Automatic annotation (TrEMBL):
Residues given in the record as substrate binding sites: 64-66, 77, 81-83
Start and end residues of each dUTPase-like domain: 13-143
Gene3D superfamilies reported in the protein's UniProt record: 2.70.40.10
CDD domains to which the protein is assigned, alphabetical: trimeric_dUTPase
Domain of life, per lineage: Bacteria
One function term, GO molecular function aspect: dUTP diphosphatase activity
Pfam family, one: dUTPase
Reactions catalysed according to its record: dUTP + H2O = dUMP + diphosphate + H(+)
Protein name: Deoxyuridine 5'-triphosphate nucleotidohydrolase
Length: 145
């Protein structure tokens, strides 16, 4: 288990894992007043959280499945990436894809955050790539069922 420095400028608890096998932690809106998103409106919702990720890690910000399925609330850049060298406030770009207005209240769980290790790569320019059974097929080329 890695340890990550975090500053919490909100009045809400730190994100935590809701179950013993959860991959993500819920992020809460840190608002001075509710924000209502009309259909197709979007907004950056502040969380009041600032963190220092170790080199080689990222935080992925993802929609909450319940908000997406029940209310049509999701994120425009899903998953959003927070890089290890970012020190600003974590904000969540939320959009209302439903036909009904949706109000975000202070403290509401609006997204989930997954911490992931990653590798940086170095390009190796080439003239040809190895052959595979799939080849260049994509966008549904492997069938419907």
């Amino acid at each position: 288990m890695i340890q990550i420095k975090i500053i919490n400028k909100s009045q809400h608890p730190l994100p935590n894992y809701e179950t013993s096998q959860s991959a993500g932690m819920d992020l809460r809106a840190n608002l001075t007043q509710p924000i209502t998103l009309e259909s197709l409106d979007r907004a950056i919702i502040p969380t009041g959280l600032f963190m220092e990720l170790p080199q080689g890690y990222e935080a992925q910000i993802r929609p909450r499945s319940g908000l997406a399925a029940k209310k049509g609330i999701t994120m425009l850049n899903s998953p959003g990436t927070i890089d290890a060298d970012y020190r600003g406030e974590i904000g969540v770009i939320v959009i209302n894809l439903s036909k009904e207005p949706f109000t975000i209240e202070n403290g509401e769980r609006i997204a989930q955050m997954v911490i992931s290790k990653f590798e940086q790569i170095q390009w190796q320019p080439a003239e040809v790539l190895s052959e595979t059974e799939r080849g260049s097929g994509g966008f549904g080329s492997t069938g419907v069922k």
